[in-house]
## 1
Amino acid sequence: MPWCDSCSAHHAPTALDGGSCPQCGGVVTDNSPHAHDGVDEEKTVGQSAPWHFWIVVVALAAYLLWRLVIGIMWAIDKF
Ligand SMILES: [Zn+2]
């Protein structure tokens, strides 16, 4: 957002009078925070889970399956 030091006010970029302040004609500086384009950081969000995560998932699934077998055998033994 363009900023005028003389008026101490922000002005719309389209309202600028040839790059100078439309009210006082002074120098307008653009101090917008998104003026620098350093937003090329690599994003690792879309990557898949690491390999050890799947080991944990497989181990958990095997454990739950084993507990299910134990439970079924217990139920069969019960009746
Ligand atoms: Zn001004």
Note: The pocket of zinc ion is lined by residues 4, 6-7, 21, 23-24, 26 (CB under 6 Å).
## 2
Amino acid sequence: MNTIDLDHRAFTSPGQGYWPEATPEQWNDWQWQMRNSVKTLGHLTGKLQLSQEEHAGVLLANTKLAMGITPYFFNLIDPFDADCAIRRQVIPRIEEMTYEPTDMADPCGEDHDMPVPGLVHRYPDRVLFLVTDRCASYCRYCTRSRVVSGVGEQELELDFDRAIDYLQKHTEVRDVLLSGGDALLLSDARLKSLLSRLRAIEHIEFLRIGSRVPIFLPQRITPELCAMLKEFHPLWMSVHVNHPKELTVEVREALGRLADAGIPLGNQSVLLKGVNDSPAVMKILVQKLLRCRVRPYYLYQCDLIQGSSHLRTPVSKGLEVIESLRGHTSGYAIPQYVIDGPGGGGKIPINPNYVVARTPDSLVLRNYKGDIYEYPELAAASDKPQEPTPVYRHLEFIDPIEEREEITSRSWRAGRRD
Ligand code: SF4
């Protein structure tokens, strides 16, 4: 439910909840958290009253995308609300077995753009380097559910030597994004070795890590990890938070350690039905992210991954969310809404339309309140004087002026000034 819980503005700690017997040392040890993850129906017994849909989903999860939830993150689930926004993200449901005709196993078309195993080279100057198939917890809408968690039909092939060799030869690549799975699940030593090999390639200017570990497993963000990452600047990180409840005291501290290590932080959210498809929830989320020193970066329309239709929203909902933020809160808080072009089109920005009309010599704009403004367009030197041309029509805003008639720049101005 998108209940607007004002408590979500506050940073709270879920505490040890269902694991009171763990010592503080165990609880704060990320490897203990991973060893004690909630993975089976048995682990849920006595913790959650599952709905029928969840019960059936949990039984089938290990045939498609494993269930796995760290004890820390599990404690954020509301045990009494089957529609809890946290629960919807990590507890499997039977709807995952329903495939719509438009669903795809590889909605971003990554497999076609892999010159060597694990390396996606789609854009001219940057690559996505998949370095593991494991995550701290598994998101039920994961774009890469075909390869993450190790239970699906497809295995993620990894060959670091071939990937490094490819990168050494491809001098056009200046930006490498490590993802997976989650690169921060590699040990410090393994990650350091990989980052060192990448840094040794002269033309690679910029390293990024895409990770949900700071959110699922903030215990992993140790001072030692941060000190190691700091050696590889410029290194940026994109985290993944969907709901303000995920921003706890523990997460704020983990993000603070990363920010103190000089790592610029951005957030990528996925627009999810019943999780964050609400202007009010999203506003709290983006404002809270800024308080954690994280810049909201992308809001993704949920990909057409098989079995995710119960979590998808119409695109109009995403536009509504963005429009509710623009002008109503800090510009730094507003992510770019994008759709990953199905089948491999890459990220395509989607924006509410603020250009009401366009003529050769002016733009008619609306602001966040719907007020109309005209901005003069400079004629290019090669432009010849021309007859007014039909302008782009935005009926909602043109209606009061022109009553849906074909309009020209001249008639529009006349309409305005009369
Ligand atoms: S953390 Fe990322 S890669 Fe892992 S399951 Fe979630 S969305 Fe997929």
Note: The chain has a mean pLDDT of 90.
